[in-house]
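Handout for the seminar on molecular recognition.
Each group receives one record of this type.
Step one: identify the two inputs.
Step two: read the structure output and locate the region that could contact adenosine-5'-diphosphate.
Step three: write two sentences on what you found, then compare them with the reference statements printed after the record.
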Amino acid sequence: MDAVAGVGPATVRLAFPPEPRLLGTVRLVVGIVARKAGMGAEGIEDLKVAVSETCAVAVGDLTRAGLGDPIEIDLVEGADRFGIEVRDRAPAHVLDPGGPGDGELDDRELGLALVGALVDDLKTSTLEGGGNRTSFWLRRGPELFDPALDDLPPPLT
Amino acid sequence: MDAVAGVGPATVRLAFPPEPRLLGTVRLVVGIVARKAGMGAEGIEDLKVAVSETCAVAVGDLTRAGLGDPIEIDLVEGADRFGIEVRDRAPAHVLDPGGPGDGELDDRELGLALVGALVDDLKTSTLEGGGNRTSFWLRRGPELFDPALDDLPPPLT
Amino acid sequence: MDLDLNVSKEGDHSVLEVAGEIDVYTAPKLREQLIELVSDGSYHIVVDLEKVDFLDSTGLGVLVGGLKRVRNHDGSLQLVCTQEKILKIFRITGLTKVFPIHSSVSDAITAPAE
Amino acid sequence: MDLDLNVSKEGDHSVLEVAGEIDVYTAPKLREQLIELVSDGSYHIVVDLEKVDFLDSTGLGVLVGGLKRVRNHDGSLQLVCTQEKILKIFRITGLTKVFPIHSSVSDAITAPAE
Ligand SMILES: Nc1ncnc2c1ncn2[C@@H]1O[C@H](COP(=O)(O)OP(=O)(O)O)[C@@H](O)[C@H]1O
Ligand SMILES: Nc1ncnc2c1ncn2[C@@H]1O[C@H](COP(=O)(O)OP(=O)(O)O)[C@@H](O)[C@H]1O
């Protein structure tokens, strides 16, 4: 977080221990910061789902690895978009070798599909020293039009 | 933040650049976390005022010092109380040498009086390497009785 | 916990009204309830999502799990949902093709069996 | 900004209705408004705080500053407030002894001048 008062985007950072019960708190906080940044209702919902799915994966990975390291979230108010970055210290994501079990869908795959569909420019990478970084953003302000998904401009990177 | 999942108090940490417009966001976040932790309405209001006053001082100090370093807030859910610690990287607090000016009361003194009256066990100290730490807590849950301050158990430290 | 469940009987349908947030934390409670209904012989279930504020992929997985269980008994699992933000989650994941989604409990109950 | 100000005239009183949050960020707007009222010759001011959700020490300082300004003109600054959480702030800081606080704008206007 290198933002200097009045220069560059304001970044609010949140960190919380990997406890599922805190995901609701995280969603509320993301909702507040996004609303204050001028995001519309639909964008706020999309960001809440995306951040909640991302953090749920991190909570699961950390818990399975027996780690209690906090999950960090950066909320970045850009000039015309809102960015989120989630970092955790879990070992690189691996699919549960036992499979989803219980005959149910693999929630992680569903979750990834959701996040990818809801936000722009989804990126994931591993952190030096172990861990994962997931980032994405959404345009802010009123949606002027609602293009079909394949009409969207390509991601910036 | 050394809390391990399921062991010890959950600590949610928030960091934000020293911009006055973010104080409202900070209050909302503190309100959410305190409510989820089971604090009552009056306690939540008291915590919001206390954290807002404390952060306003930090924002002013950092701004006067020309610093943009983020202010950090730890929100600690204890078994029967809710604790807040605010840290900033501003030079040690000094009263504005020019005085309050404009014939108005010294807001900082008023602010300190407020915080001290609203919360329990207010402590301030300077950080190694420069900066300030302010911490306080409030009991949570329904107020069963309202003891005079000197009936309270001594602080842990 | 921010999830309230309420079960009622409407003829041979069991109506499960869900209120609150369905996520990794609360979904197990929903899963238990669905398993209990099926063990008790309720094979025609209507899940009313009108009071659900949030639904994540874990919740979707639990609903799909419930669907599989009732199908083992030639039963049905139908949803009631008119909230755009929740419908969006089903649409994006392609689950609108898997679940019959109705705009009211009575619509769901009177819908012709597939 | 989360502070709305609305001025109306009631006889020789100016009623300033404040809505929103008064803090370090928004208090300057309130200070400007009070200064403007006094420069325009409004020396009897009623500040209606019923729609204020939050008040910090900067806001208190601005109100005290307003009081000093009107007193320079033998005027008055009265408050309207029934919200416990806001009254608490005045009480703790001892300012209930400094400001006449009323439970309605009409009470404030008809109150005998001190
Ligand atoms: N995918 C992303 N995830 C998180 N933050 C992002 C992402 N893309 C951009 N940002 C951040 O958003 C901020 C604003 O980006 P910027 O290009 O200034 O947005 P705008 O197009 O609104 O001007 C930048 O500081 C950048 O770091
Ligand atoms: N003044 C304070 N400010 C911030 N945190 C505090 C303060 N006092 C205690 N805490 C923190 O609150 C947490 C809970 O304290 P604890 O003694 O467990 O509370 P309880 O009395 O509810 O069990 C501890 O981790 C401690 O660090």
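Reference statements: Chain C has a mean pLDDT of 96. The radius of gyration of chain C is 13 Å.
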